[in-house]
Write a structure and sequence with these properties.
Elements lengths: L1 H19 L15 E2 L3 E7 L5 E7 L4 E7 L2 H4 L2 H17 L8 E7 L2 E7 L6 H6 L6 H20 L2 E2 L8 E3 L5 E3 L6 E4 L2 E2 L28 H5 L6 H17 L18
Antiparallel strand pairs: 1-2, 2-3, 3-4, 4-6, 5-6, 7-10, 8-9, 10-11
Helix pairs in contact: 1-3, 5-7
Organism: hydrothermal vent metagenome
GO molecular function: ATP binding; protein serine/threonine kinase activity
Protein name: Protein kinase domain-containing protein
Amino acid sequence: MLTRLIKKFKGNSSAASATSGPRPAVDKPAWQPGDIILERYRVDEVHGGAMGRVYIAWHLGWNIPVAIKAPRPEVLAVPEGVKRVLTEADSWVRMGMHPNIATCFYVLNIDDTPYLFIEYVNGGDLQEWIKSGRCRDQRTNLSLAVQFCHGMEFTHSKGIIHRDIKPQNILLTKNALLKITDFGIIQIRTASGPGKPEAALSPGQAGPEVTAGFRGTPGYASPEQLRDAHRIDKRSDIFSFGICLWLMFCGRKPYTNNAVPATASFST
């Protein structure tokens, strides 16, 4: 299935390039609230952001809400970007289900665009919980920390490194069930070690110590990820969650300035 989708997108991209040049990076909603997609999904909300556009829809067959995520247009403007989206989405789907992982049900090609259909989580993200003061209760924080560890233990047992752990990628239900999401820059470990990530197409912004192939968020990435993104393991995810924990318990990051971890002075 994945191979057929990649070939289809490559073929369409080649034809488009031959006639009209690279696909323009236009970011406009494909659907509006009330639209019906494939006679199966009713669009209820449309949200845009730096990571791409997200549609909250109601699955008319399953009677549950789902999040439909469209990659950023600049990623889809090049064939390799499309291939990466499909490959990583396939890895997310194959990961299976876990209570502390936002499930990616499948990826569908709609109008030559790959859309990820993901479990909808209704309670906001950890960043919102911290800002609203919901993380002032230490028992809540400990519960969230344990849930995160369960989710990442499952992920790492599948040979997958997330590489972009941050509060915005930690979702919560209204009942405080934690779910890790956005496995969009995952790295698959092989028998010989971490797979070499593709350069560029990074959703994070590089700081002064960030390597050319860096993909992630500098304020949460481990020093080794910032210095050599080609050679990291699950410890990098653990470091990133440590920053999240500090923010949860202390209300701030552990830095004495705005530097990224590779150059920061840490508070004690």
